[in-house]
Amino acid sequence: MTILTFFLQALASLLAIITFLIVLNVQRRMLIPAGLLGMFIWLLYLLLKGPTNVIVATFVAAIVGSCCSQIMSVIYKTPAVVFILSILAPLVPGYLSYRTTAFFVTGDYSKAMVNATLVVILALVISIGMASGTVALKLFKYIQKRKHVHY
């Protein structure tokens, strides 16, 4: 991937995520921070997809995004769902779902089943990754709290 392609991916993802958040009626002051988080997650996914695969890249991006969403919700004093929406936008396999439906409609059932399986796997990976990120952050907070307890 060239630097120009990377920059264009960053800009396009930022604009797409902010537009998505506007459609969902997210507070105006949260559009830029949430959009930047979503852009970061998309770029992380792109960087990881090359050396690994789509499933691993999605899983890691979901974990990192979940942790960042929780942290940013505290920093900006707003519900975490605003930031979770911004990381779901780039990770949910919308185009793959569309292609799966198109394969079913055109009667290409073998390609449809392969794509449908991948869509289900990615949906599970996203949810497991987001839950893992939340648990990892809570575990980190617990360990930090235990370090400061003196007997």
UniProtKB/TrEMBL annotation:
Q: Please tell me the species this chain comes from.
A: Streptococcus gordonii
Membrane-protein topology: Multi-pass membrane protein
Task: Specify the domain of life of the species encoding this protein.
Answer: Bacteria
Q: Which UniProt keywords apply?
A: Cell inner membrane, Cell membrane, Membrane, Transmembrane, Transmembrane helix
Q: Is the keyword Cell inner membrane assigned to this protein?
A: yes
Q: What is its main location?
A: membrane
GO BP: succinate transport
* Protein's name according to its UniProt entry: Threonine/Serine exporter ThrE domain-containing protein
**Where in the cell?**
Cell membrane
Domain Threonine/Serine exporter ThrE stretches: 9-131
Task: Give the family, as the similarity comment puts it.
Answer: Belongs to the ThrE exporter (TC 2.A.79) family.
InterPro entries for this protein: ThrE_2, ThrE_Dicarb/AminoAcid_Exp
State which residue ranges cross the membrane. 6-24, 31-48, 54-73, 80-98, 118-140
An annotated GO cellular component: plasma membrane
